[in-house]
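Model it.
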Amino acid sequence: MQQSRSEVTERDGLVELSAGSDVLDSPRYNHDIAPTRVEQRTWNRWHITALWIGMSICVPTYTLGGVLTAYFGLSVGEALLAILLANLVVLIPLTLNAFAGTRYGIPFPVLLRASFGIIGSNVPCLIRAVVACGWFGIQTLFGGLAIHLFLGSIFPAWKALGGTGEVIGFLLFWGLNLWVVLRGAESIKWLETLSAPLLVLVGLGLLVWALPHISVSELLAQPPKRPEGASVTGYFMAGLTAMVGFWATLSLNIPDFSRYARSQKDQILGQIFGLPLTMFLFAALGVVMTAASASLVGETVSDPVSLIGHIPSPGWVAVAMALIIVATLSTNTAANIVSPTNDFQNIAPKLIGRTRAVWLTGFIGLALMAHELLKKLGWIVSDLSLESVYSNWLLGYSSLLGPIAGIMVVDYFLVRRQRLDLAGLYRDDVYPAWNWPGFAAFAVPVALTVMALGNRQFHWFYDYGWFTGSLLGGALYYGFCGRRARSPAALAKPLP
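Modeled.
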């Protein structure tokens, strides 16, 4: 006989829900976004380290490193410093937002129900989901290009397909990504563990190829691509914000992964071991190789897939592309499909299960890349480059995601003091439908960011979007919650 009321137990700092009919029959619950049971939390620090290595060592990481010099006007030395600082900064919200996932076993959308409300959580969820779908499309473009170059290196006739071959590669890689995610979290864990070393090999191979032809001292001495005499501060902070914005997405939905961690120690050490150094080294490789590409192949090339395509040996190109395909697959599935899958389920858990959510993610990602795919087919002509799109996009969306990160951290640690009603997060009678302090704290920094775009003197607020947004959003939320929300009596149970 099914129990009527849910029961919550705690073992070694991990909270577990034994769901009763009050939760199981709720429209806010399905099995895919339910809290993980303690026995399901099997990821140790090395699994989480491998997860981050697999996600960090990816084509966009490399490309963004090059974007800092090519589009943000930084010198090679300034770009390397921006990368290092950004990854140390982003480690803070990543680790803090992971705590609730590990303790309560809940994914990102369910955690948001505490700070934005049971229904209101869908707004930041959808903001995060659309961004993830966009990155899914971008990564799939790189994976599709790798498939095209792989097949072209084996079958010379395939090369003649040109852009059409790239589109076919895109569709093949698109389907492969969805298949992996549909197989579940364990398949992602093992894929990450397997593929983490592969792009390391690609990176080392690029260095071996390039080092005889470049001078590191000359690269470091190259002047930055910005107006002569311009202050470095604005350019550096814009580049730093873009680098932080790169992981602004994962700093929100890290509970989607930390809910599988064995302990807080495992998730903390796994992130420290896996993210900063790995991200720095591979992005630094992108900075160096992009700066050196002109002397290597006669033009500036900011992504490794296209650069490898210039290598005159078809055999080595085929090997490199095979490694890139597997490594990009691991990054794309973990970083860009898991989160929107959970986010879409949060809208209507009884109607949208995991399978439907995965397909929805896939088709939105496909739609967002329609412009680029039509360009490759030759059906439209456009000068808009993919690099310029996401270099500007990084700043723009970090301004939206920064306040959400600040609100989440303040809500869990300062307002609720790490106390959540686990069963109440899946019902309608504990937390409000809309938590207006959360929306007010989100709206103010976003509005200021939009205003800053049209004001030259206030433009720094946009350039520093993630920092200004997260700090202001968190401070406003703390203030809006008021004294009663932070009193011991109110904290004995979740906030009304």
